[in-house]
Amino acid sequence: MPELQLAPYAVSVSARGRKIAEPAPSARSEFQRDRDRIIHSGAFRRLEYKTQVFVNHEGDLFRTRLTHSIEVAQIGRSIARRLALNEDLVEAISLAHDLGHTPFGHAGQEELNACMKDYGGFEHNLQSLRVVDVLEERYAEFDGLNLCFETREGILKHCSQENAAQLGEVGERFLNNHRPSLEAQLANLADEIAYNNHDVDDGLRSGLVTLEQLATVRLFSEHLDEVRTSYPDLSERRVVHETVRRMIGTLVTDLIEQTELNIQTQAPQSVDDVRVAPPLVAFSEGMRELNRELKSFLRTQLYRHYRVMRMSAKSQRIISDLFHAFTDDPRLLPPQFAPTEESKRARAVADYIAGMTDRYAIREHRRIFAIEDL
Ligand code: MG
Q1: Is the pTM of this model over 0.70?
Q2: How many angstroms is it from 192 CA to the middle of ligand 1?
Q3: How far is the CA of 176 from the centre of ligand 1 (A)?
Q4: First and final CA of the chain: distance in angstroms?
Q5: Using only C-alpha atoms, what is the Rg of the chain?
Q6: Which of 24, 86, 213, 232 has its CA 20 to 30 A from that of 272?
Q7: Domain segments of the chain: what residues?
């Protein structure tokens, strides 16, 4: 089914299709099919129990990787529609972008990467691609989800030159220094808008950061002052939400305006033009600066808060213990995760660990190390 009313520089159909040819879907577009396959995957369901910043059992209201991914898709789709880009493709990339994340958020990823340093490393973007290309076992005719090229390239946000060289067509752009589609560029920045804002909200909810601290961050304080002036008697919870929604609104508007300007200036006529142009989906310089300020606040005040660090340290111990236990003795692995060849032992263990939810990893650690648990 052709996409209607898309800009000439939007992805309307998949130029390079799927690795394994399939009959066209009858009632959906190819990218709707991709989105649907992602939603039906096991890795997508596991996002519900994977940490964004706070470990799942720390509270029911914090973002998880699942709700984070849904927020990314929401922001991405709104902007895509406004810019006449392919909303379905943005949604598919957004929902899949974190499928390869380990349990315990960045702490988990760093630790698994450290464990894998002699075996090619571990990188969550690459793992997300591995999930959709190889690891999902659902379809009769192929491994993985057999997604369209444009969805796969959007999932692979970053990648080392070394890895890119081994990835075939999806790695080419890193070697040629080309850009991905505007839809992929957009999903990437929608991710950033989502996490900066929801981390502010979760940070405040957790009590690890305070409104007074955040009042030093310009992007936040400007909206906070507005809200407090307009609604002097509003409860703190609503003040926070009003402020965060206004921040998201400002970022989205800035991104749309700057991107429209960039598109006007570069005047791409096709997706191929987009690939050789500089990045076109972008914030204004002023907004980039405000964003940097907010990110650096979150890094020092929230992500490195001693209580977050304690949880990170515990998580890293769990990941490292599991990795070493399984690589030392692969007979401890459930048979479906056992390596097929000796040379694939570490990667098989990394795939098993990366697929775990937080609570599964905690339980598995107990089953392996606690004498009273089996
Ligand atoms: Mg993300």
Answers
A1: yes
A2: 7
A3: 25
A4: 52
A5: 21
A6: 24
A7: 30-308, 314-373
Residue with token string 């921040």: 247
Taking Cα atoms as reference points, which of 93, 51, 290, 71 lies closest to residue 194? 71
Render 154-184 in DSSP notation, one character per residue.
HH-----HHHHTTSGGGGHHHHHT----HHH
Instruction: Please tell me the distance between residue 97's alpha carbon and the centre of ligand 1 in angstroms.
Output: 6
Provide the CA 165 distance to its chain's centre, in angstroms. 23
Cross-strand pairs, 148: 18
Could you tell me the distance, in angstroms and rounded to a whole number, from the CA of residue 72 to the centre of ligand 1? 7
Distance (angstroms) between ligand 1 centre and the Cα of 368 equals: 31
pLDDT attached to residue 25: 93
Residue 141 CA, ligand 1 centroid: distance in Å: 30
Sequence letter at residue 264? Q
Cβ contact 97:157 at 8 Å: yes
Rounded Cα distance, 244 and 239, in Å:
9
Element (DSSP H or E) covering residue 124: helix 124-130
Quick check: 361 and 322 in contact, CB under 8 A? yes
How far is the C-alpha of 144 from the C-alpha of 129, rounded, in Å? Answer: 9
Give me the pLDDT at residue 3, please. 47
Average pLDDT of adjacent 10-residue blocks, the chain of 374 residues: 78 94 94 98 95 76 91 98 97 97 94 97 95 96 97 93 90 94 98 95 92 95 97 96 97 98 98 97 98 96 91 95 97 92 94 96 94 72
